[in-house]
């Protein structure tokens, strides 16, 4: 039996060699023999709306008994909001957040429907393992977002990648290694 992973991609274009596609391809290449990776198309990635992304999560998670979740950038923000506000029946083995912004943290990061409720982190206790990954010199989402999540969530695992990548087009071996260890 293969482990199930649901990967929620970043905002913006998701065509070949765009957005999260390089990271997804790498993960499928590295984990495909042991894991089944679901990568749902999220509605309007160039102008995401939380209510529409929530519907896709409802659909996918309602059909699974146990899952590993990976959220990249906007996908990570979306998963944190969803998991902290919704009653999820699915057993979440692990949650991996990669290069995710905290909406509302800074003037440039204002997307009100993705803002997290104060105290959101208190509603994540049902998740067995939470891990944060971020590039040290991410040119899209500054490292201060990682630092803030780290203080609030107190993850089981956190990794700063010595890189300036946000998209991880060539993959993220540290993430794959961590998933294999779950």
UniProtKB/TrEMBL annotation:
Keywords: Hydrolase. InterPro entries: AB_hydrolase_fold, RBBP9/YdeN. The keyword Hydrolase applies. It comes from the Bacteria. One of its GO terms (molecular function) is hydrolase activity. Pfam families: Ser_hydrolase (PF06821). This is Alpha/beta fold hydrolase. It comes from Salinicoccus bachuensis. The lineage of its organism: Bacteria, Bacillati, Bacillota, Bacilli, Bacillales.
